[in-house]
Amino acid sequence: MGNIKTTLRPVAISKVMINFAINEGIDLETCLLGTNISEHNLNDGSALIEVEQEMRLIENIMLALPDISVLGFRIGLCYNIATFGIWGFSLRTCRTLRDALQVALRFLPLSTAYCEISSHEHNGFFSLRMHPQSIPSHLRQFLLERDMAASIVLVKELSLNEIQSVVAEFTETNSDDDNFIEAICSAKPRFNNSYNAITIPSKYIDKPLSTYDANLTHMLADQCSRQLRQRQAGATADCVRQQILGALGLTASLEDVASALSLSSRTLRRKLDQEKTSFRALLEEERKQMAFQLLTSSDMKIDDLAAHLGYTDTRSFTRAFQRWNDISPSEYRKSKV
Questions:
Q1: Topology of domain 4-204, CATH
Q2: Beta-carbon neighbour count of residue 328 at 10 Å?
């Protein structure tokens, strides 16, 4: 499992919290105070933020909404599978709920979770236990509630709402609003427990999911692995990827990216070298992944595809592709038909 605390997070996940606060009458400026998250970031679907920025955002929302009971739980209910992009879609294509939850835990840093989460099965019940001890104390209850509520939503959604009753278990003596939690879970929450968890009957855990797709399962798992590596690779490398996959495109030069990041070319090279990579390596990696996707999912002509990927001519692209895959782009496309 990747390190959740050092993994960059998509700003889209934080946007869910901001929308909740705005619906409660809190202005955007209050939400973003001291976060260094700009409105431009919020409107950029590919933007990533650091854990410290998300935690400051949470602090702002908690201070602005002190009278809302079980605030973290209510915000957690606003998430759904689509919120999480590739991570969420990868769960939907799994064979069973058990498989989906195993994938979820494997790539947990791609979710909203801050708790350490583990699965347990005993006496006919399956539990996801939440361990919030490593979370700063003033945010612990909020993030525990958010992780539990988001997990409940995902379990119900994956089962196509066949699972109606989920037991929420807490180590604390009571909650700010037991009735609200009971209404959401269709079961009384349990308190003074030895662990925090959500629990469902084991009979649901190995039922086949109607959305299962073996080919997509493997493809999306590979993409989750890649995305996790990218988010943990380092801030500079990630910023470079955002530029070449965003406004500048795959035709961008190192000088173009350095200028967009307000760095000198020399400084950008040095920072990437410190992160054990280079501009050329990052550009080639993204070209490679994009080439595989376009050859598999589009009818784009090879000449046009080469130009789209930033190659000066088709021959250069073909040589690069053969170096990656030992066959030509045309042969690769035919093998996927």
A1: H-NOX domain (3.90.1520)
A2: 15
Starting at the edge strand that comes first in sequence, how are the strands of the sheet with 125-131 ordered?
116-122, 125-131, 196-201, 167-169
Beta strands in the chain (DSSP E): 9-10, 48-49, 116-122, 125-131, 167-169, 196-201
Give Cα separations from 160 to 81, 148, 209 (angstroms). Answer: 12, 18, 9
Please tell me the class of the 234-335 domain: mainly alpha
Residues 164-220: tens digit of each pLDDT: 899 999 999 877 789 999 999 999 999 999 999 999 999 999 999 999 998 899 889
State how far the alpha carbon of 336 is from the alpha carbons of 217, 234, 304, in Å: 16, 34, 19
Contact 199, 181 (CB under 8 A): no
Place of tokens 């945010």: 139
Which residue ranges make up each domain of the chain?
Answer: 4-204, 234-335
pTM of the model: 0.70
Q: What are phi and psi of 118, to 5 degrees?
A: -135, 155
